[in-house]
Amino acid sequence: MTGKPELVAMTSSHVDSVMAIDSRVYARPWSRSMWIKEIEDAGRPHLVALDGSEVVGHAGSMYALDEVHLTTVAVLPERQGEGIASDLVLALLDQAVRAGSSAATLEVRAADRRTQRLYSRFGFAPAGVRRGYYTTPSDDGIIMWLADLQSPELARRLDEIRSRTPGAAGSTTQSTEQGILGIETSCDETAAAVVRGGREVLSSVVSSQIEIHARFGGVVPEVASRAHVESILPVVGAALTEAGIDGADVDAVAATHGPGLVGALLVGVSAAKAMSLVWEVPFIGINHLEAHLYAAFLEEPDLEMPLVVLLVSGGHTMLILMEGNLQYRVLGSTLDDAAGEAFDKVARHIGLGYPGGPIIDRLSAKGDRDAIRFPRAMMSDGWDFSFSGVKTSVVNHLRHNPDTPIEDLAASFQEAVADVLVTKARRAARKYGARGLCLAGGVAANSRLRQSVIDVCEADGLRAFVPSREMCTDNAAMVAAVAWHRLRADGPSPLDLGADPSLRLPTS
Ligand code: KG4
Ligand code: ZN
């Protein structure tokens, strides 16, 4: 179950589950007899959050004179970061307002800044310190105070928090969410980003190693891993600073765990796990291909499905039918070189440098794309692709015609690749009744491919989703975006999740 939990009054049937949660989140959980007494006391209302029949969180209060004291709030570790604690606090405050209370108080560990932040969003402010209030581990207690429970201003604040809670009509984000930190180190980009609610990009920092690898004409795995180790902490620091958020306040930490270079992936995965342990937030391992698919959603929140996606990068070429959120079918993929690989290899063979895609793209702008008719392999043949033939043709053509202007060669090669990709995507859109065509992956930055998709969509009455170039190439915003969906669908990943260099796209 992954829906929004339902909040109900706690009864004795919930005690076992509540104690199980407390044993995981509190150093000194209450005993069963304490709980039974609490439940029987009408002045001490407790709520549980139920997902189906499972208790995923609970919170309690205690009424004294005209004040309410919030005694406890706890959420299952794997369900933290979803806003459940916030919903529970909101419900307790609503109850207190209806009961006519005039103020609310609570105590929280001095070291627990995350919880203090949660309460401050409701209007609680620190009012005093109780030295050594907590034992095991020992800590001061911060007394927080919320006056004027009956004020219109508080009513407005609670309404605002309520209206932004997921599940409420017309809303997708939640004001109590801080954002997920995403990390990407699968290839030659070290990237970190903070994204709130799966689509609001608070920061996105990308440190490219392209210059380092250009000397070798391609990515050197060992060099990539070392460069990631050097950049990861500064890049994460920059992403947090730019988002204006403290590491300890992020809702979760996500990292790409495959596919990619194993040594490079391990840097991001290890860093993310360490941060998740220190900050006590969920860790989520993300599939790089799925992240590319979600990049478009960051810019086009109202993408309509079914949708045909061309996922074209340095390592992959896939024609995908996206039928719903996190639901896709791979219709076809490349039998040999990936589209980006073909660009890179052609560029290397004719001495243009690395990475080939952007160089060929730039040269093509000044060339004639109809100058040479390069072969379109498997054009009318199923959904798969093959790009090694066109690569060989380009190299052979130049060998036999050394005077060919390099711009014409580049433009004609680029046209052949774009033509096959877009023709098949268009046919798939027709066959499966897609609403639109979407581009994803590094090669989606290609000018000719972008234009062809736009032209075809216009002709066929489809919507064209062409993400910005920054979103097409490797970045961490797409990692944090898909993490938001995955956390809701599957919960956090286990901390023993490894890097998987050949991870495949999960298909429905
Ligand atoms: O998605 P990405 O950044 O990394 C992978 O996951 O592979 O894609 C990198 C690939 C490289 O092969 C690069 O040459 C290609 O994307 N690329 C382009 C362009 N920009 C990047 N290919 C064609 N035209 C471009 N403008
Ligand atoms: Zn990529």
Summarize the structure.
Helix content is 41%, strand content 23%. It has 16 helices and 17 strands.
Q: How would you describe this protein?
A:
- The chain has 508 residues and is α/β, with parallel strands linked by helices.
- It folds into three domains: 6-164, Aminopeptidase (3-Layer(aba) Sandwich), CATH 3.40.630; 180-292, ATPase, nucleotide binding domain (Nucleotidyltransferase, domain 5, 2-Layer Sandwich), CATH 3.30.420; 302-472, ATPase, nucleotide binding domain (Nucleotidyltransferase, domain 5, 2-Layer Sandwich), CATH 3.30.420.40.
- Helix content is 41%, strand content 23%.
- It has 16 helices and 17 strands.
- It has a seven-stranded mixed β-sheet. Strands 10-9-8-11-12 form a five-stranded mixed β-sheet, with helices on both faces.
- 5'-O-[(R)-(carboxyoxy)(hydroxy)phosphoryl]adenosine binds next to α10 and α11.
Per-chain topology:
Layout: E1 6-9, H1 15-25, H2 32-40, E2 46-51, E3 54-64, E4 67-75, H3 84-98, E5 103-109, H4 113-121, E6 125-134, E7 139-146, H5 152-163, E8 180-184, E9 189-196, E10 200-208, H6 210-214, H7 221-243, E11 252-258, H8 262-279, E12 283-287, H9 288-299, E13 307-312, E14 317-324, E15 327-333, H10 339-349, H11 356-364, H12 388-400, H13 406-432, E16 436-440, H14 447-460, E17 463-465, H15 469-472, H16 477-490
The site of zinc ion has 6 residues, from helix 9.
